[in-house]
Design a protein that fits this description.
Helix content: 40-55%
Order of helices and strands: HHEHEHHHHEHHEEEE
Number of strands: 7
Number of helices: 9
Shape: globular
Distance between the termini: 13 Å
């Protein structure tokens, strides 16, 4: 298992990439994508978040806490969620990400709205606590390949709690991770 570099060094590396003329490297390394995965060991996630809050607290970045988004989604849609759990027992993930063509509130749209708000404010969105998505059916690739992210002139940064075994990233140390539409920094 690979050990990760220190948080300050990795966050500085991400800042250098997204704040410089090297932004085209992101799309080149991300197969046309517009996302940077900042990989951290799950046991160090809070340390990274603290450091990100310190280093990325400016007019250029908007830190988006996915735990807060989930709580907001649940508070605003409690009755729909309860009936969804009853109705969708075999497909619970549809509560969090509605099938294509369905127009109802879902967690996925809440997350995209927060990312869109950051872009509208001229900021680079930075998702933290992405482990909160585990079990929702929302994968990072869904966010990375969304038109909003792909067409933005600013990248999306995701703090990604993962372990690395040989050449394989494992989200939360359990599930193989896609490296397709993102530039990996670890």
């Amino acid at each position: 298992m690979k050990s990760f570099s220190n948080p300050e060094q990795l966050i500085s590396q991400v800042k250098t990439i997204v704040e410089s003329d090297r932004r085209s490297e992101i799309r080149l390394n991300a197969n046309g994508g517009n996302c940077v995965l900042l990989v951290c060991d799950p046991s160090q996630e809070q340390i990274f978040i603290n450091e990100m809050n310190s280093m990325l607290n400016g007019q250029q970045y908007q830190i988006i806490d996915l735990n807060s988004i989930i709580v907001s989604f649940a508070e605003n849609n409690l009755s729909e969620i309860e009936s969804g759990f009853e109705f969708l027992q075999g497909s619970v993930e549809q509560i969090f990400k509605a099938p294509s063509g369905e127009n109802r509130p879902d967690l996925y749209k809440y997350i995209l709205s927060a990312i869109g708000d950051a872009y509208s404010a001229g900021k680079i969105p930075v998702l933290v606590r992405s482990g909160a998505l585990y079990g929702t059916g929302i994968e990072n690739i869904h966010l990375m390949e969304n038109e909003l992210v792909m067409k933005s002139d600013k990248p999306l940064i995701i703090l990604y709690p993962a372990t690395q075994e040989e050449n394989q990233l494992r989200f939360l140390g359990t599930r193989p991770a896609s490296k397709y539409r993102c530039m990996i920094v670890n």
